[in-house]
Amino acid sequence: MSAAAVLLVKDVLSIFKIRIGVAIMMSAIGGVAITPGRMPEIWQITVLAAAVFLASASAGAFNQWAEADLDRTMKRTANRPFASGRLHAGSGWLAAILGLLAIAVTLAYWSANGWAAFYTFAGAFVYGIIYTVWLKRRSWTNIVVGGLAGSFAVLAGAAAVGSAWQPEPLILAIVLFLWTPPHFWSLAIAAQDDYRVAKVPMLPVISGPSVTAKVILAHSLLLVGLSLLPVFWSMGPVYLAGAVIGGSLFVWTSIRLVRIPDRKNAIRNFLASLLQLVLLLGGAVADRMIGAL
User: Fold this and answer.
1) Is residue 250 classed exposed, middle or buried when 0-12, 13-18 and 19+ CB atoms within 10 A define those classes?
2) Could you give the CA distance from residue 207 to residue 38 in angstroms, rounded to a whole number?
3) Domain limits for position 249
4) What is the total count of domains within the chain?
5) 185-241 per-position pLDDT tens digit
6) How many CB atoms lie within 10 A of CB 42?
């Protein structure tokens, strides 16, 4: 494969925001694991996870397609394929993105049910339309509402097992809703100059890093406390260990960020939030697997 072909493949893959897609997919699997009821077949879980991943990928691609002009103004995003002009953000890409979303929703319906398909679509809609189009350039609440994308992924997984309106998946959905803002605001503190130049009203730009760090700490304390509650219903010690270890690390780095709200501590908190999510969702899956033995 030529160097130009390799670059093209990398560019195409990068527009789908694979890392975000993996986190959203993990949230759906966590929703399956934490919901009481008869587990779906492995193929059903696999297809649903792929559907949620593809829906997230479509929303991520739409985000880059719609924000090519905005991305050009920020150092962190100026080299993205659409922003740089290496890929042309034309109507063909929009059709492909919408087609990918349609495939994702269809797969969710086929592998699970209508509710799972609805939640899969809702997560992509929140990120693509509500966050990207309606709120990103207008309000600091953009990423607060955008946090619903992860919540809907949890509910999609829960719907595959039974009712998503049970305490455990609802609590996990709320945790994901509360997790997204401090996760992203940590990155926004590190990149606040970019957002200021681009006139994007992220919280660190509006209120400053010191106030943002305090809000991040409040979010982290609340979401970590809530993440412990499923133990009072059906989750066991493995889940509890993941929630406690990951949550403690996230709170600790958030406290450090409050003390010194600089770029270094913001990046540390951003990474700690990722580890906290992995331990929480991984603990839910491991707990369910051990319980099935």
Assistant:
1) buried
2) 47
3) 14-291
4) 1
5) 999 999 999 999 999 999 999 999 999 999 999 999 999 999 999 999 989 999 999
6) 8
Q: Do 176 and 154 form a contact (C-beta atoms < 8 A)?
A: yes
DSSP for 66-104? HTHHHHTTSTTTTTSHHHHTSS---HHHHHHHHHHHHHH
Locate 265 and state its tokens.
């501590």
User: Residue 49, SS3?
Assistant: helix
* C-beta separation of 160 from 146 below 8 A: no
Residue 4 lies in a domain: no
- Give the model's confidence band at 177: pLDDT under 50 very low, under 70 low, under 90 confident, else very high: very high
d(CA 170, CA 78): 38
Q: Is residue 256 part of a domain?
A: yes
Dihedral angle, C-alpha 127, 224, 244, 183, nearest 10 °: 40
Q: Which of 68, 23, 16, 80 is nearest to 49 (CA)?
A: 23
Pairwise CA distance, residues 263 & 216, whole Å: 14
Q: pTM for the whole thing?
A: 0.94
Query: pLDDT tens, 47-105?
Result: 999 999 999 999 999 999 999 999 999 888 889 999 998 888 889 999 999 999 999 99
Q: In this structure, what token pair is assigned to residue 70?
A: 């905005």
- Cβ neighbourhood burial of 38 (10 Å; 0-12, 13-18, 19+): exposed
Single-letter code of the amino acid located at 216: I
Which of 30, 39, 37, 48 is CA-nearest to residue 112?
48
* Domain assignment present for 150: yes
Burial class of residue 114 (count of CB atoms within 10 Å of its CB; 0-12, 13-18, 19+): exposed
Amino acid, res. 83: A
6 is a domain residue = no
